[in-house]
């Protein structure tokens, strides 16, 4: 699917930053997923979960203390896919969908990336919030280790 055909993004509101992904990359939004912790991993690595028989990594959208505040009863994981690779994104708040036509693309004057982990596709404003749209393809490619 070409970028011009993508019409909606799934937004992840956070306590300090807001993120989003093209809705065409979203495979599933799951609630109350069982995530298994793995020791000695990077701080944003939540763990792994079983998704349709495969173990997939789960990364936090925000830092651990922010994720756990006020949302301890519900685990929300968005499963995204690029080619044969899956990734779970642990959210701190309920996601929602908006249309690209309802959002205004913002030029990032400083060229600042969203974070080291998330590769940014663009910065958009919707109402009074800014959303960093994650480039799922580049983010997943940056996580895959080739022998």
In short:
With 147 residues, the chain is mostly beta strands.
Please describe what this structure looks like.
This protein has 147 residues and is mainly beta. The chain is built from 2 helices and 11 strands, in the order E-E-E-E-E-H-E-E-E-E-E-E-H. A hairpin with a 6-residue loop joins strand 1 and strand 2. It is globular.
Order of helices and strands: EEEEEHEEEEEEH
Q: Could you tell me how far the N terminus lies from the C terminus, measured between alpha carbons in angstroms?
A: 29 Å
How many strand elements? 11
pLDDT average, as an integer? 82
**Structure class:** mainly beta
Strands of the widest sheet, in order across it, are: 8-1-2-11-10-9
Summed up, the helix count is 2
Biggest sheet features: 6 strands, mixed
Q: Uncertain runs with pLDDT below 50, 5 residues or more?
A: 66-71
Q: Indicate the proportion of strand residues.
A: 35-45%
Question: What does the radius of gyration come to?
Answer: 15 Å
Q: Globular, elongated, flat, extended or rod-shaped: what is the shape? A: globular
Range of helix content: under 10%
Pfam family, one: CheW
Organism: Blautia hominis
Protein name: CheW-like domain-containing protein
InterPro entries: CheW-like_dom_sf, CheW-lke_dom
């Amino acid at each position: 699917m070409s970028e011009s055909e993508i019409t909606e993004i799934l937004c992840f509101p956070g306590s300090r930053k807001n993120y989003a992904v093209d809705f065409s990359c979203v495979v599933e939004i799951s609630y109350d997923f069982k995530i298994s912790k793995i020791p000695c991993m990077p701080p944003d690595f939540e763990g792994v979960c079983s998704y349709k028989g495969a173990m997939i990594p789960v990364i936090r959208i925000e830092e651990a203390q922010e994720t756990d505040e006020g949302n301890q009863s519900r685990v929300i994981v968005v499963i995204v896919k690029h080619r044969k690779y899956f990734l779970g994104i642990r959210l701190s708040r309920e996601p929602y969908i908006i249309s690209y036509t309802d959002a205004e693309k913002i030029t990032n004057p400083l060229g600042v990336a969203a974070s080291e982990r998330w590769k940014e596709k663009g910065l958009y404003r919707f109402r009074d919030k800014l959303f960093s749209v994650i480039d799922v393809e580049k983010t997943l490619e940056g996580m895959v280790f080739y022998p």
